[in-house]
Task: inverse folding
């Protein structure tokens, strides 16, 4: 096969196959290019020794010896004119129910496709991403894209299911399967403006095996949207409006509308952003971004006021509503929030020093007219130099809520971190060994306004790292924490140790040993849990 | 404890016999999916650590329903002690601009007041999108793991 310059081919591949590994090209003597098959296997074998006073309520792990195996394969061929064909597949196998809860084998992803300069076709796990209010979801099906000059056409058809195993009747499903289709027509006006129109439909049906009988009526939905994307220089604008119609034999038929506008501008020292989102509770679409019942507006800015200070602000007003049903009225939560930050450096006379200040004010009121308020002020001073980082922070806040008045509190926070790295590296030579130590601790005091009761939480993390070229690396992590109770009841305590050592092998393969011990509330007859894990991991890439 | 001894011996044996070569990180076939999963793990770690500022930095400001996530974290931070959020049955799908992560989550925490161990679970989809070099949460659909009940 003779191809265009490799850089151009790789660029085309990256643009067309987001997420795919970059092909490795090897030159033949006669000038042709051959593609390699890339793949990898990560095999974990580990043994858990778990003790829990309340079974799975306290820990997700179970005692026993388990394995986990992840296999990935990526097969590609590049033809003339930058045409690329590919086949990607990933599989996980494990007998550990905390990894795979339903079946010991899972098809993580599967996709085969073909891309050219003006078209793309994919089959398997596809993720159509038309826009915020139309189609943005994961589908198991077929995707196609074709470009005709300034006009592009996108289309997909497939099924939305929890996983491939549901579709193959291997495991039961907790939700209906949706058959979905969508199409998008896009027109570009030069390099700055693109407009589009979309249409999508979905219809629900029962999965081959349902975990529970489907009591909810099967529904069908149709939606359409129009939108634009404008970008010139440092200004960008996206806007979209959509309508939908949902039917389920009269049970909860509904029509909904949605509109979104987002704008962003960046100047030399100022950045501005603003947006408005209005999505009816009745709106339905194939976009996971379009959450029904969201009404929100925001304005944000960042301003480098001087060489030593940057100011950031974010003002947000939102109202989240639920859908009214035959059994319940619509409810809402209305929130206003303001965040102001300042990042300060102390100039060239004090290199490495920085100070950040933050104030957050939030007010919430719900449909039952119950109000909540939160106020936080915090400051943190940092110092960084080659091989050393450190920081000290303090914050004070107050929370009041008519929903949970027993938790009305004033809060004080302290945080401290320090990190140091060592190596034998010189300005003109790479280090052959390096080591590091990091310590991070936080302390929080919560004082209840109702009765003055006080609760203290202290947590720390201490990490040691080391690496020797040719030998491998090692990490040791120590964690701990305690929370006292305002009632004087025994505190909550947690302690953990984790050690892992990674050894390089030939090529890009590695071998790792890991050990972990975690103890939670060791003296508590109900909350006690202890986990011991010892395992090996082998990673083999080809 | 026999299995522990076997693993220990295997570990020592491997440590002695593996050939020396430059240390390499574990290679991921699907780099973007791995980066998105790492970013999600950082977000969940920030949540369980109660680091609101770090969490907000990993959520797109223009995300529809931004307040649903941030408010849930803000409201429940002081009522959930020792929170622990674990994922299982995780699958990824990717397109030109996003990585979609479908997963089952389990949350365990001790509620205050009352000092009662709680267990919640659900299924949700995280949509992650790269912004410059940082992956951020772009959408959350399904059961909200950041809520209290």
Result:
């Amino acid at each position: 096969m003779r191809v265009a310059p490799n850089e151009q081919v790789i660029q085309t591949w990256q643009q067309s196959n987001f997420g795919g590994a970059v092909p490795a090209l090897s030159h033949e003597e006669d000038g042709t290019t051959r593609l390699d098959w890339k793949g990898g296997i990560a095999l974990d074998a580990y043994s858990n020794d778990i003790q829990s006073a309340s079974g799975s309520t306290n820990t997700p792990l179970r005692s026993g010896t388990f394995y986990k195996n992840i296999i990935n394969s990526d097969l590609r061929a590049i033809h003339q004119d930058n045409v690329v064909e590919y086949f990607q597949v990933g599989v996980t196998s494990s007998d550990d129910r905390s990894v795979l809860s339903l079946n010991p084998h899972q098809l993580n992803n599967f996709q085969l496709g073909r891309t050219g300069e003006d078209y793309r076709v994919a089959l398997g796990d596809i993720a159509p991403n038309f826009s915020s209010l139309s189609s943005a979801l994961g589908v198991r099906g077929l995707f196609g894209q074709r470009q005709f000059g300034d006009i592009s056409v996108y289309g997909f058809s497939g099924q939305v299911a929890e996983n491939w195993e549901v579709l193959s009747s291997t495991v039961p499903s907790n939700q209906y399967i949706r058959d979905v289709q969508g199409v998008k027509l896009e027109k570009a006006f030069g390099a700055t403006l693109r407009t589009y129109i979309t249409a999508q439909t979905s219809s629900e049906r029962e999965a081959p095996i349902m975990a529970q009988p489907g009591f909810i009526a099967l529904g069908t939905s149709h939606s359409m949207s129009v939108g634009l994307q404008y970008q010139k220089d440092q200004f960008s604008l996206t806007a979209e409006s959509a309508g939908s119609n949902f039917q389920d034999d009269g049970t909860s038929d509904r029509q909904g509308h949605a509109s979104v506008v987002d704008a962003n501008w960046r100047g030399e020292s100022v950045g501005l952003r603003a947006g408005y989102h209005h999505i009816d509770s009745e709106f339905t679409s194939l976009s996971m971004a379009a959450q029904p019942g969201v009404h929100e507006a925001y304005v944000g800015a960042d301003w480098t006021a001087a060489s030593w200070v940057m100011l950031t602000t974010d003002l947000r007003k939102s109202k989240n509503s639920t859908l009214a049903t035959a059994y319940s009225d619509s409810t809402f939560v209305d929130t206003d929030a303001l965040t102001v930050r300042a990042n300060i450096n102390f100039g060239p006379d004090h290199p490495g020093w920085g100070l950040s200040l933050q104030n957050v004010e939030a007010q919430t009121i719900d449909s039952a007219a119950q109000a909540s308020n939160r106020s936080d002020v915090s400051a943190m001073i940092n110092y960084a130099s080659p091989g050393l980082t450190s920081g000290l922070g303090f914050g004070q806040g107050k929370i009041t809520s008519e929903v949970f008045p027993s938790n009305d509190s004033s809060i004080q926070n302290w945080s401290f971190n320090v990190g140091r790295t060592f190596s034998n590296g010189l300005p003109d030579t790479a280090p052959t060994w390096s080591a590091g130590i990091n310590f991070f601790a936080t302390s929080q005091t919560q004082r209840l306004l109702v009765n003055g009761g006080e609760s203290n939480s202290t947590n720390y993390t201490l990490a040691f790292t080391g690496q020797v070229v040719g030998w491998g690396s090692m990490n040791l992590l120590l964690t701990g924490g305690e929370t006292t109770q305002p009632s004087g009841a025994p505190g909550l305590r947690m302690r953990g140790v984790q050690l892992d050592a990674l050894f390089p092998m030939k090529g890009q393969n590695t071998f790792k040993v890991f050990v972990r011990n975690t103890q939670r509330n060791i003296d508590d007859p109900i909350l006690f849990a202890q986990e011991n894990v010892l395992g090996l991991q082998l990673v083999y890439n080809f | 404890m026999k299995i522990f001894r076997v693993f220990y011996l295997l570990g020592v044996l491997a440590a002695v016999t593996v050939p020396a070569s430059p240390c390499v990180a574990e290679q991921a076939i699907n780099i973007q999916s791995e980066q998105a999963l790492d970013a999600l793990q950082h977000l969940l770690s920030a949540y369980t650590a109660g680091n609101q500022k770090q969490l907000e930095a990993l959520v797109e400001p223009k995300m529809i329903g931004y307040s649903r996530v941030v408010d849930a974290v803000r409201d429940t931070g002081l009522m959930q002690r020792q929170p622990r959020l674990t994922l299982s049955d995780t699958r990824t799908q990717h397109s030109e601009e996003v990585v979609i992560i479908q997963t089952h989550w389990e949350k365990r925490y001790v509620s205050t007041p009352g000092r009662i161990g709680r267990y919640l679970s659900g299924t949700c989809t995280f949509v992650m999108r790269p912004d410059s070099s940082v992956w951020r949460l772009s959408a959350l659909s399904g059961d909200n793991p950041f809520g209290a009940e």
About this structure: Chain A touches chain B through 122 residues (CB under 8 Å). Confidence is low (pLDDT under 50) at residues 8-22, 25-31 of chain A.
